[in-house]
Amino acid sequence: MNFLTFAEQFIEAQFPRAAIAVLAGSTARRERTATSDIDLLLIGEDLFEQERSRTAMATTRAYAGEVFEIFAYTPAGFAEWAERDLARHRPVIVRMLIDGIPIRDDGSLATLRARWRTSLDLGPRIDDAELAFRRYVITDLLDDLQDSTSPIEIRVLEGLLYERIAELILLSGGEWIGSGKWLPRRLAAFDATRAAALSAPLLAGDHAGFAERVAAELDACGGRMQDGMVR
């Protein structure tokens, strides 16, 4: 299937006023699986003709046997939500804008990409207070893991700890984080050796080994945080 043509057909049918349209996700990267949907970023001043007060919409639409995940914005709405993503250190729609394949371009896409690439290249803005709080959360979770004897509690805590320590490693290194499957991918891209060392005991069911690895990474990022923590 020619997904660019197919996506344009969908846009014309359901979001005809889109001035900019970008195909993103696994379809754009040619990494589709059997359950992949089609990610589209849409931007247009008159995109929401029937709801003039709306500036943003995230919606799932079925069309001709495929599922589309739509991220639609007015220019002002995109700027607002892009800044929110950057503040959360997960620049999802900014990456869609920059890395995706253009389907529609009213002539402003290059300027828009250049503006947001500058923000992306600067990396996450994170202060000492947030880093300290993240260390505090990991310290607490790590203590819980080392004390727990419940198999289900151990597995839940390990999942939470992997997420929190991976985020801390990335942010301490000036890297953007991700959610879900993107978190281990971001970590591996940043430092494959550290990523493998963290995941190996987790995959092997070595609970003590995983706790030791998390503790080592916590030390590398500033160490345990409890005394004097204000939240």
UniProtKB/TrEMBL annotation:
Annotated EC: 2.7.7.-
Keyword terms, alphabetized: Nucleotidyltransferase, Transferase
Superkingdom to which the source organism belongs: Bacteria
Main EC class the enzyme belongs to: transferase
Annotated Gene3D superfamilies: Beta Polymerase, domain 2
Molecular functions (GO terms): nucleotidyltransferase activity
Protein name per Swiss-Prot or TrEMBL: Nucleotidyltransferase domain-containing protein
